[in-house]
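Hi R.,

Quick one: here's the Lysophospholipase L1-like esterase sequence you asked about.
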Amino acid sequence: MSDVKSTDGQADLDESTQEQATTLPPPAPWSRYIAIGDSFTEGLWDLQPEDETNCRGWADMLAMNLSHRRIAAGLDPLLYANLAIRGRLLRPIIAEQLPAALEMKPDLVSLIGGGNDILRPNVDVDVLSRSLEAAVVRIRESGADVLLSTGVDASDSPLMGLTRGRVGIFNANVWSIAQRHGAFVMDQWGMRALRDWRMWAPDRIHLTTDGHRRISQGALIALGQEPDDAQWDDPLAPLPPVPRLEWARENALWLREHVAPWAARRIRKESSGDARTAKYPELVPFG
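And here's the predicted structure, written out as tokens:
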């Protein structure tokens, strides 16, 4: 009797696997993905209800998606590591995270950084771009593919909009680097949904869970893969205008709770990630 149940259960499992395989797009060619970078890739503000001390983020979502497609096709789960740490400038990302990533012999690396550098008014964007290109060359020479990203168009933010020119130059360099070395580029600058404040956390620098979800779909597109959601970049339904007094109060709250602590850390030459380590420092089966 137990043998019959086991056979029936296996048949049900096989049917379920086949059904999942027909509903998911075909698997991507990568089996070992490592994400390196700063808070954007660490997944800041995408807190999980079961563990609010940890965050998920677009890179974890991308890895989960790629892994599910592999599993549905009968392949082993994707191996994934996330070495990103909040507050990191591009140079430490390249000096500390990149060697550790290459030692694990990935076939896909997402290298997204430079945003913290660009927030500093004295940054030399061309030097930043040359550092990025040298890192891309190292990754490509290892045989791995590279996913880069443009910065976001912050023209709707009175304060962050001051960096728009620097971001624009950096973006142009990112596209040129990608063309020279065969890298993939996720185009955050062109994402319409990111122009909506509802995609952004209270600090106005990091994404909400929905923002991270949309970025993960944009990453699939950048990698030449089919998205799960055809409407992934559709703008949200517009909200009525915020009264001027309410907007002023929100700005004052933002300056007090987010900008002031950030500026204080800059003065003390501290980083929000000084005491942190990578959340997934080793390749593990994901999904």
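Confidence is low (pLDDT under 50) at residues 1-21.

Cheers,
M.
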